Amino acid sequence: MTPTPSADMSDVIAEVRGKLGMITLNRPKALNALSLGMVRDLLGTLLAWQKDDSILGVAIRGSNKEGVFGAFCAGGDIRFLHAAGSSGNPQLEDFFTEEYALNHLIHSFGKPYIAFMDGIVMGGGMGISQGGSLRIVTERTKMAMPETAIGLFPDVGGGYFLSRCPGAVGEWLALSGDTIGAGDALAFGLADGCIPAAQQADLWETLATTDFANVEALNAVVRSRFVSAESKVAAHRAEIDTCFSQPTVAAVVQALQAGSDWAQTEAATLRKRSPLMLHVVLEQIRRARQMNLAEDLRMERDMVRHCFYLRPGRSETVEGIRALAVDKDHSPRWNPASIEEVSDAEWQAFFDSPWPAHSHPLAALQG
Fold first, then answer.
1. 91-124, pLDDT tens digit by residue?
2. Residue 76 catalytic?
3. N or C: lower Cβ tally within 10 Å for the chain?
4. Which candidate in 11, 99, 118, 147 is catalytic?
5. Residue 245: how many CB atoms within 10 A of its CB?
């Protein structure tokens, strides 16, 4: 039987059941936010399972305070990022290098990787699910890349997978940080199927106890459970494409302000985000559209280094996390304070790599 997650067990529970490696994220009090230790546990486990011919595939789920499922992963541990970024803790660098390596491994795993994306799936949670071969959402899924709200950018490969969304949806999700549900995740290519939340436990046990003849049989069992899910954003798609395809952040906001009530609300949202990081993110998505995943992750590794160290004492990320999660005053002091005040030189600096290509921390990633 599957062990019931509890407070005294590891934050990552990994076990082999039948032909599958099965992972439960077990840090429910933090909505399974990823620590450096969790990243290392996941990376080590997946590397071992990738080489083990007896393991046909992997399934991963989250947990909440009541038990399994209910929340997948809310992202990286932002309180750690704030403390490390404020104190010069070198583990900050380790966290991003190893997290991005984990993201790449999942995309290139070579075996079925089935992600049960129930409840909150944000930031780092997207990084450990978007590379999956079967990304399962439910009616409870709340999916987002909300990093601009904390003065960061959609990392963990966000440039790669958001830029592959249809039209200008990637720009919209990256800039606004808006949350979407199951139907829109399917429509935008960010999920492969939806199952009712109440059926997850039964599917999990079926995966653990079935003697699958091959990968095709495994995939067929999962796909047989899929149900339809309605898109909630379809009515706004034309406006998203028109507004978020504009050439600059200022033009995006101007187009939104001249649009529908929904568009004007989006404009107001963007005005609350880090003006500097909005410029960085728009460029990120558009550059990433022409990149493979390894190239995108190397670019994002450059960018995240700059988020903490480019402007000593003036990190938008440290300030954004302070306002949201530390002091919780929800009043970040962005610098520059408005979209119109950001110079090209300020955002362009985020795309200069601090490393020569041969010495980049992610130089070994391929494709």
1. 999 999 999 999 999 999 999 999 999 999 999 9
2. yes
3. N
4. 147
5. 15
